[in-house]
Design goal:
Helices cover 52% and strands 13% of the residues. Helix 4 (220-232) packs across helix 5, helix 10 runs antiparallel to helix 11 (384-397) and helix 16 (472-484) crosses helix 18. A hairpin with a 2-residue loop joins strand 6 (124-126) and strand 7 (129-139). It is an alpha+beta fold. The strands form 3 sheets. Strands 2, 3, 5, 6, 7 and 11 form a 6-stranded antiparallel beta sheet that branches.
């Protein structure tokens, strides 16, 4: 795709806008960034608000700074950038305005702005699977996103908030920020840096101020706006296409704040390819995610959010929770004592910073592993509440930890077995299913984080859960995937699960022949893998194979399987033996009826 980027700038009040942005190609990299000046946080001068002055200064310094670095963001240069911006803001504030005597909050700082940057190098990869690398840096609540044609909008940055909130809570509460770039920045404040490798064939990177996403009724409504405007756009070339104009027009109608949005597509072969790539995603959103209204139940919206956030928050698990070490060159507010300043370390090299990351990451991984081992021990000893609490602790440390989510699925499944109340048992099964489905729906990503055997087991448990919830179609779908999975025939308790599958299959409304065949192939693998076991085990396998062959309509094959079963009837329990005999006579009558 030729160099193309979409930029939307809208002021909520003419000539009063406090957002700024940059979108520049520097050789092999594209650099985009947005800056949201906090006008309510500080006064200004010369007829301009502090936010307008701060965002414009930060944008200009950032552009000049990265022009010398070919648009490449790195851990050590974002620290240097922070220094340059804050020193310049401090110089302007000291020379042009009085410092407030009020202390203790961002609202009393001078010349404040957010920053969100993304540097996208020339794409790598070959054939169908590409790797799009991106380096991001941010401070405040402006965001960088990746818009996937299959997974939708995915947030690559975490907002700096005094009280942690997810994207849905943010729409309702709008909590204050914990840090931003300002003339009076504290020694503890630190710009974030993160490197990603995104395995996609194509997609769009976005940089946005909060005016783009903060005033919708739900997080998915932002994605809907982008894709609906894309779908309605006209023009067969990037230069003539109206997507940018339609987005600008829509925001002009609904704006409640300044809007700065930069969108950069990667991996597409033109506008037609881009539009067609997102059609199924838009249809999925329109069919499955309502636009909440004043009459919508919060519980319904929350349930949709729990479904949407699986992909939306996927990259949060990779964000380093530690902060880079700041430099002694930071402009320090007079609100802080000299003892605070002495704790600020001199600038480190990239190698040293990487070592800090590795040490902190290793300590975090060790803590999580200890908690996991204890949680599994509690689970094995049926101390389920204690195991659940430890899993919650792990998710507080690493929000997308797959092992903790797998174990929570097991915990809720086991809890459902012991619950006598029918409604409560169903709710526990549904909670368990939500954790297992999160794993299997992101199978390609989580395979690197969890044993493949546990993913296979997740499919089998989901089959059982939906059998228990009397949802035969879903039960059949998950069991069918399980049967086809490599290694499924090596798991124990296959007899009860074949029984659950046969019952669900008889009650399902889908393609029974295809589903039955997947289970028959599974049975053949079981026969092969149980040669060294007592022959009775094989007899039971043929019993289920006969039922599946009958469902499939292969009556002669079912009859042959039943003959194998009845020839070894001593290996069956009484009930199974009776059912095998009845099935044999039933099939014989059908075959005789065909002949005569």
């Amino acid at each position: 795709m030729t160099k193309f980027n979409l930029v939307v700038n809208i002021e909520v009040a003419e000539d009063k806008g406090e957002d700024d942005n940059l979108a520049e190609h520097f050789g092999q990299s594209f650099l985009m960034g947005v800056f949201d000046g906090l006008g309510g946080a500080s006064a200004g001068y010369d007829g301009k608000t502090g936010g307008r002055i701060a965002s414009a200064e930060a944008s200009q310094i950032t552009k000049e700074f990265f022009k010398q670095r070919y648009g490449e963001i790195a851990p050590e240069n974002v620290i240097e950038l922070q220094n340059k911006i804050c020193q310049s803001l401090k110089h302007k504030a000291d020379n042009n305005m009085q410092k407030s005597r009020l202390k203790g909050t961002l609202l009393q700082h001078r010349l404040c702005t957010t920053i969100a940057l993304a540097s996208i190098p020339k794409q790598q990869g070959q054939e169908k699977i590409k790797i799009f690398e991106v380096d991001v840096a941010w401070m405040g609540d402006s965001r960088i996103y990746f818009l996937s044609p299959t997974k939708g909008l995915q947030q690559l940055t975490k907002d700096d908030l005094k009280t942690s909130k997810d994207a849905l809570e943010m729409l309702r509460q709008d909590p204050p920020m914990s840090q931003c770039l300002t003339a009076d920045i504290s020694p503890e404040s630190q710009i974030h840096f993160q490197h990603y490798k995104i395995e996609e064939t194509a997609g769009c990177f976005l940089a946005c101020t909060d005016g783009c996403f903060q005033y919708f009724s739900a997080p998915w409504e932002f994605e809907k706006l982008l894709l609906e405007m894309l779908s309605k756009s006209e023009g067969d070339t990037m230069e003539k296409n109206t997507w940018q104009q339609l987005i600008k027009q829509r925001y002009t109608e609904i704006k409640q704040d300044d809007v700065s949005l930069i969108l950069y597509p990667v991996g597409f072969n033109g506008i037609k390819h881009l539009k067609s790539s997102y059609q199924k995603r838009l249809q999925y959103l329109q069919e499955n995610f309502m636009a909440p209204t004043a009459n919508s139940r919060y519980e319904d919206v929350q349930n949709l959010w729990e479904k949407y956030r699986i992909d939306y928050e996927y990259y949060f698990q990779f964000i380093q929770e530690i902060q880079l070490i700041a430099t002694s060159k930071l402009p320090v507010s007079e609100d802080y004592s000299s003892s605070s300043v002495t704790s600020v370390t001199s600038s480190l090299s990239t190698q040293e910073l990487n070592q800090v990351f590795k040490q902190k990451a290793a300590a975090k991984a060790e803590e999580i592993q200890t908690l996991l081992e204890q949680a599994y021990s509690y689970y094995e000893n049926n101390r389920l509440n204690e195991a659940q609490n430890l899993c919650s602790q792990i998710l507080n440390i690493e929000v997308h930890n797959t092992e903790a989510k797998y174990l929570l699925g097991l915990i809720y499944t086991k809890s459902a077995f012991t619950e006598s109340n029918y409604y409560n048992r169903g709710e526990l099964f549904k909670k368990a299913a939500s954790y297992f489905e999160e794993l299997v729906l992101n199978k390609s990503a989580v395979e690197k984080l969890i044993a493949v055997e546990k993913i296979v087991e997740s499919y089998r448990i989901l089959g059982f859960i939906y059998y228990s919830l009397n949802s035969p179609n879903k039960s059949v779908d998950y069991y069918q995937i399980f049967f086809k999975s490599e290694g499924s025939d090596k798991l124990d308790n296959w007899q009860e699960h074949l029984n659950f599958f046969v019952i669900s299959l008889r009650n399902s409304t889908g393609n029974k022949c295809e589903s039955a065949n997947s289970a028959i192939q599974f049975c053949h693998r079981l026969v092969h893998n149980t040669k060294l076991l007592p022959y009775g085990r094989n007899t039971v396998i043929y019993y289920f194979m006969a039922q599946l062959q009958e469902i499939e309509g292969e009556l002669n094959a079912a009859l042959n399987s039943l003959q194998t079963v009845l020839a070894n009837s001593l290996q069956l329990d009484y009930k199974m033996h009776q059912e095998a005999q009845q099935m044999y006579h039933k099939i014989m009558n059908k075959l005789n009826g065909r002949r005569y």
